[in-house]
Amino acid sequence: MIIVAVGAIAVLVLVNQLIRWGTGNDGNVIRVSGNVEVTEAEVSFKIAGRVVERLVGEGESVEKGQTVARLDDSELSREAALRRAEVQAAEAALAELEAGSRPEEIAQAEAAERRAQSRLEEMETGSRPEEITAAEATLAQAEADAVRWRAEHERALKLHEEGVISSQQLDVVRSNYEMAEAKKKAAGEQKKLVEEGPRKEQVEQARASWQEASQRYQMIKAGPRKETIAQARARLEQVRQALAAAQTRLGYATLLAPLTGVVLSENIEAGEFVSPGTPVVTMGELSQVWLRAYINETDLGRVKVGQMVRLRTDTYPDKEYEGKVTFIASQAEFTPRNVQTPQERVKLVYRVKIDVPNPQGELKPGMPADAEIVLGAGE
User: Fold this and answer.
1) Whole-angstrom Cα distance, residue 106 to residue 216?
2) How confident is the model at residue 340 (pLDDT cuts 50, 70, 90)?
3) pLDDT at residue 2, rounded to an integer
4) HEC states along 321-359?
5) Number of neighbouring beta carbons within 10 Å of residue 12
6) Smallest Cα–Cα separation from 258: which of 76, 71, 56?
7) How far apart are CA 325 and CA 222, in angstroms?
8) Does the structure show a pLDDT above 70 at 33?
9) Could you write out the DSSP letters of every residue in 168-221?
10) What is the extent of the structural domain holding 232?
């Protein structure tokens, strides 16, 4: 936040200079005195944070846009990176929707729909004769195997009693016999299921699966709806705005000089925590200074905005600076209190502002100066 204020630097003016306000008049000029002043800017961050570095110091010349100080921006950088990733994801999602379904996606959905339809038709038709025949054949083979292993088991029991075979050999035969019986039972149950056909709930489940696959196929074939694309576009705009806001906040962590000038004072050091609006440095614009002077009421009608002014200082007595009147107060005021004589303090005067170009920066804040307002010049 930049708070631009006109800073008046009070310096006592020599009494003999002030006595001449409005009195020095040869018919063509009005002589006034005052002090050089500058437009000041209190340079501050727009966000709160900890200052990690201040890059300019008191008395240094600074260019407009030059970095003055920086805040710790680690959290702000992470936020900006997160928002950037969200934008990329939203852009990819919208591009995919706008491109529509790919041919391979349509083909896969169509194949899935056909498989579900075939399964439903099988359920509704029931078992085919060949399936029943196959189930009967499987059962017959299982029964034959069970008969054979039953006989093997009975023979092994006798041989074991006679000591011809060991217990381990008997266990192997018994295991094969039990397995054959289990297969016979399973084959019998399968034959029964085939003969009965699918249950009603199985048919309904197959129908539901087919309907779901059919709807999915139609949706993929038709492509995304306009509403879906519109929602994706709105989402992209939303995350883009969030990214812009995050980048703006990140930019606020770098404090830039609002003008070309000189640092008048340092207010914050590195490591300190600042709130929004807390001045970090105070800058003065030296390229264009101005003089605060006063004229008597008798001279008010003779001084006009735009009149040329010649200005000299004690520091550079042989150099003359040119300026012009840019403001004349509409209301009278008493002579400033820093005038030491009571006679002068009770006079009513009018404040005048004189702008003076200062490209070399020779005129400094607070410097006493004498000026001549050239009557008629520049009007």
Assistant:
1) 10
2) very low
3) 40
4) EEEEEEEECCCCEECCCCCCCHHHHCCEEEEEEEEEECC
5) 12
6) 56
7) 76
8) yes
9) HHHHHHHHHHHHHHHHHHHHHHHHHHHHH---HHHHHHHHHHHHHHHHHHHHHH
10) 75-98+228-251
Question: Do 363 and 356 meet the contact criterion of CB atoms below 8 Å apart?
Answer: yes
What is the number of structural domains in the chain?
Answer: 3
DSSP 3-state assignment of 106?
helix
- Residue 111 shares a structural domain with residue 220: yes
Residues in a beta bridge with 295: 350
Q: Provide the residue type at 9 as one letter.
A: I
In-domain check, residue 56:
no
Amino acid at 277: G
* Helix orientation angle between 129-161 and 167-196, rounded to the nearest 10 degrees: 160
Question: What confidence category does residue 124 fall into, taking pLDDT thresholds of 50, 70 and 90?
Answer: low
pLDDT given at position 343: 47
Q: Where are the alpha helices (DSSP H) in the chain?
A: 15-18, 74-99, 103-125, 129-161, 167-196, 200-222, 226-251, 342-345
Shared-domain flag, residues 84 and 172: no
